[in-house]
Each structure stands twice: as C-alpha cells, then as structure tokens.
UniProtKB/TrEMBL annotation:
Keyword field: Cell outer membrane, Membrane, Receptor, TonB box, Transmembrane, Transmembrane beta strand, Transport
All residue ranges annotated as the TonB-dependent receptor plug domain in the record: 60-162
Record protein name field: Iron complex outermembrane receptor protein
InterPro entries: Beta-barrel_TonB, Beta-barrel_TonB_sf, Plug_dom, Plug_dom_sf, TonB-dep_rcpt-like
Membrane topology: Multi-pass membrane protein
PROSITE patterns: TONB_DEPENDENT_REC_3
Amino acid sequence: MTKRSGGVSRARVRAAWVGGTMLGLAILAPVAQAQSSEPTDRTEEEVVVTAARTVLPPNALPLTIDIIDKAALDQQIAMSGSVTDAVAVLTPSFSPTRGKLSGAGETLRGRSPLYAINGIPQTTPLRDGSRDGFTIDGFFIDRVELIYGSNALQGVGGTGGIVNQVTVAPPRTEGWSGRTLAQVTAADGFESDSLGGKVAGLVQYKAGIFDATIGGSYERRGVFYDAQDRRIGINLTQGETQDSRAHDLFARLGAQLRDTGRLDLILNRFQLAGEGRFVPLGGNRRTGLPTSAVRGDPPGIPAANRAEAASLSYTDSDVAGGNLVAQIFVNRTYDTFGGEPNAIATFQDPAIAPVGTLLDQSENRSKKWGARASYERAVPGFEALVATIGFDALWDKSEQRLILTDRVWVPPADFQSLAPFAQANLKLFDGGLRLAGGVRWENVKVRIADYRTLASTTYDGRNPATYGGVSVKGGTPGFDQLLLNGGVIVEPVAGIRAYASYAEGFTMADIGRITRAVGTPGTDLGNFRAIDPVISNNREIGVEVKRGPLDAGATYFWSTSNNGQVLLALGNGIFQVQRQRVEIQGLELNLGMRLPIEGLRLSTGYAHLIGRYDSDTRAPDGIVDTDLDGTNISPDRMNVAADLASGPVTARVQTQMYFARNFRGKARPDPRNDFGGYTVTDAMVRYQTRIGGFYLSAQNIFDRQYIDYNSDTRLPDDNLAFFAGRGRTFTLGWDQRW
C-alpha cells in the first residue's frame, strides 16, 4: 500500500526477501505509474514492488521498503540534482552524498547499497569504481524502490540494501504522447561559471500491439559555490558532477504478444564527463578553510563515466496459472579517473621515468551479461500458499588500467554467478498472519590470471613509495553457499502490522583494491583468503500504523558479517581493504500526519546507527572494539518536511539534521576525524498551468556554511580533500506532458 509523504507521493511498504529481482518490465504498465510529473493528491493504492520479485501485495512481505514515486523523485532532483542525491536526502539511513562523481563511502545502513536499473545490477562485483549511482538520467526513471538491509534479492552486492530504478513505462493510449523539460541552475551570487542548464524530452507512440519510447537528455553543470561564495574544490582523481556535461539516450520498444504476455527491449547510453577547466586550490584544515578551485588545465583526460546497457525481457501473468518473468541483459561501463598535477606515488616506475615525474591515470572497464527467470503461482489445491522458483546467471569481466602508459593496475578478472532459488509465502487467518521463507543457492567463481603488480604498489607512511613489481600467481577461487531468509507478519487490525525477518546477503570484497596491493612475491590467489566473499545478515523487527491521518513506523535492525570489509586510509589518498568482523545495529523511525488544513502534511524520519569492527588485524579475536568511521557508516540524522498541495500550487520545505559523532575504540581513531554535524534546509514551489508546470527550487535556502560529512571524517592531513557543502543554489524549470 502506498502512503503520501506530504504531497510528494512517497510510498513506504514492507516486503520480504524472495531471492532475486522481479525482472518484469511489462508488469510496469499497470503498476501505480505516475503519468505526470505534476504532484497529485492520490488516495491509497496498491503498489507492486518489482525489486521484490513477487506480485504479492506489499502487506504480505516482512521487510522494509521505501518507494519514491515520479512526483517525489522529480521534486528532489530539481532541488539536489541527481537520483542518488534524491535517495540520500529522503532516506535517513543513507549517507550524505559527497556531491562528487564518486559515491565511495556512501552507505545504506552502514553497508554498500546495490544500484540496479529494472533489476539489472550496475555495481561491478570485483572492482567497485563507485560510479554506479550515475548510469542513467533521472528524467527516464518513473520511481525508485529501496529495499533495506542485507539480502540476496539481486544476488551479489546487496549487503546494505538495493536501490532499484524503474524506467518509464510504455504508453497506454494509441497515438503520440511525450514529455519535455527545460531548467536552469545557478548559485545565489549568479556567478557566470555557476550557471548550468538541462533539456530533456521523450516521445512515445503506440499502434496496435507495438509501442516505442525514444528520449534524450543533455545537462551542463556549472561550478558549485559554498555559502561563503567560494568555489567548491575540484577532486580531479575521483571526478566531479560540477563543471561537467552529461547526456543520455534512452529507448524502449515493446510488443504486447498476447493479452497477458509482453516483450520489451530497453536500451540506454549515459555519459558524464568533466569539462577540465579548473584545478584544486588547497584549503587548510587547521583554520577551517575549505579546498577551492581556480582556472587551470588539469593533466590527462578529465574524469568521466560511461554506461551502456541493453535488456530484453518477456513477462506473462498467465502461464499455466502463474506469473513468468524472463530477462537477458548486457551492460558495459567505463570509469575514467582523472590525473593529478603532482605525480601519484603509486604510479611511479623508474623504468619508465624518473621517480616523481611520471603522470598517469586509471580507468575501470567492466562488461556484464546475464540471464534471469522466475515463475510464481499459488499451489494448486492450496491457494493460500504462493511459491516462486527461479534461476539467475551473471558474468562480469573487469580490469583497471593506467591509460596513459597502458599498464595493468588491477589484473583482468572474470566473475561468474549461478544461483537457483525458491521462495514460499503462506497466508493464514485471512491475512492476519503470514509466513515467508526461502533459499538461494549461490555459486560463484572468480578467475584471475598470473600477473605482476606495479613497480610502486604500497605506501609505508614515511617514504613516498615502497617499490614492488612482485609476481603473483593467479587462481580460480570460488564458493557456494545457501543463503536463507524468513519472516512473519501479524496484522490483527487493518492498518496495524508488526513483522520480524531474517535475511542473508553477500558481496565480493573489492578484489581490485586487494590484488593491486599484493606485496608478497609468490602469493597464490587460489588460496588467498583476503578475497573471500563478504557474507552478511540482517535481523529486523518493526511495527507500522497506517490509519486515518496517521502514518507511522518503527524498525530496529542488527547486522553482522564475520569476514566483513572495512576501508582504511593509507595516507596517500588511496584506501586499503581490511577483512574484519563487522557489527551494525540501528533504529529507524518515521512519522507522517495529514493536518486538518486541506492539502497540508507534516512528516519526519530519524535514523540512529552504531557500527563497530574488530581492529586486531594480525590476530583477530572476533570482538568488535572500534567504531566504523565516516568512510564506512553514516551519521545519525533527522529529516523534517512540510508539504502543501492546493489547487495548481504544490510546495515543500525540508530539513536534514546530521548529528555530531565521535569515533572511538581500540584502534584509536584520529580525533580530527570526529564529525561536527550540520543542518541543511531546501524548498520548492510549483505552479501548474495549461502549458505545463513551472517550478522554482532552492537548495540550502539559509546559505549554511558547512564541511561535508565525507571530508570531515577522513584524511585529516589532506588539505586538497577538505570540501565545503554547496551553498544556496536556485533552479528554475518547466516541464510538460502532451
């Protein structure tokens, strides 16, 4: 069931883990699609969560899910700029975004989320370039489904949760239709280099059983300014969304082959690249002066991200009385990291150039292809029991190269995952009690050939680099494991539910970071335990009240992984993976209330997270003794929002309060990385006319100066990575459906 979150039609539902993604693209047409970006005052309606891989109603499924519908998504993108920013703003358990092209360190419930588009994973399993939040323009997304906690819904990667972006639905009516958008963005000082703009459009046509949707978007972002009217610093290596250009080409071609069966082909090509017009100007952490930017020519190629994807799916809601979903897909990504004005110590090789003079930059390259299928139906003669069976297959080939000297930094690695699964859902006492449970048998193999590390591979804290160039024996490590899930929902009165669930998930450790840093000659990867997968679990209990004007929920969860993954800074801007036991627990509270004033709604959300790990690297004792730092967990946060919908006018004011946090423990975290906290408020107003909707939004309306969370909690000696948050920024736009 959907719920309104103050005029933005944000739905919160509960769902159980069923072992994979829905995959169904045809099912999207009848599923609560937002047919206009215009906010509407909808009544409660049932939503099928495609990422949950079942057509059962959400109240049958015991896990935490949020749905951000089209109206809410467009509203947030207008204020914050991207789908990732929208998710982060609306989700208290999600880390504040870095405002960069890289999403490294951005977590959901203290673990990495898996980004997907129509169920297709965007994350690279073996070398996470942290660009997976920028693979499609939000203009082509109808809603975002967030599934919280460790689970194996999509197979590899969902240890923190799943962010599934569902693309635009096919046209429903015969003939031509479409949508257009134009907007301009500027800092409040209206500096010329802060100006940015976006144009986008799509055309849809339906004739008989065939339909087509074709669209494109182009966005040019200007330089970002902080609240003190200084340019925000440029991160040349990881990349920027500021001072960049992006374009996206999207197509969806479909055929209704029978009343219940549909074939869909979806194509997308997205690219975001820096303009390369600025270089960083170092700040001063001791005095609080953040990093800025000045005009200049950075070396090499500006950081960029390119993603190309194609998928073909068939869905049929009546195959022998059940629902069939099948999909094949291919996906290629290129993550280009920028160069630095000063030679990076790790890339030095005296055989190529004198130490300290060699400039280089790297690029992740990944190609995925796979197939997935599922079949769901009620058991004949026992209709209260609904069963799902399915099979997922995924192959990925990844490497990281130094593109200016054509050297291999991360050796080519082949990933293979084959996973059958089954799920059952039992309805008792006319829905007053439901039981769900299932299993996924995950079979993974990784193949890495023999290779040689870079001449410079490690940092010892004193010298610029310790020269390596060691030979490493490849191998074919693998594992197979049964991943279990189960849950129960009790709904004694309509609108009041309690649930409890358990789910196991897994991800691969960042093998790229691990293999490129091997420093011991003769290491055999076939027996190298550091590349074992991360197996995590999620235990969760919650209660939900949804009656009259009240919409409230409370969830407590705890998650553990015996061989988890912690990113630790080496001191040279490069992070190393350490495998340690990790424990995370948290409390999430949500409250929404429709007020007696017509169209006015208030809402709030709160998340409290605690994460610790075993810091005994040489002799781990399994006892967590040190807090996870800002690279690995988000701060406590409270969101407050007010929404108004009155005739043609809609408006929203929202505040995010990030609370201070100190990091302590046996490993003696650097107190300079303690977080001071900050508060940011955004607003938007929209007026609907016959010729479209006109809107004006303002990010950080009180022009609050602050240092972003990621900068404040890591690399305390790096004055080039001390970034302020974005100051007051205006966006004026227009969109129209026709």
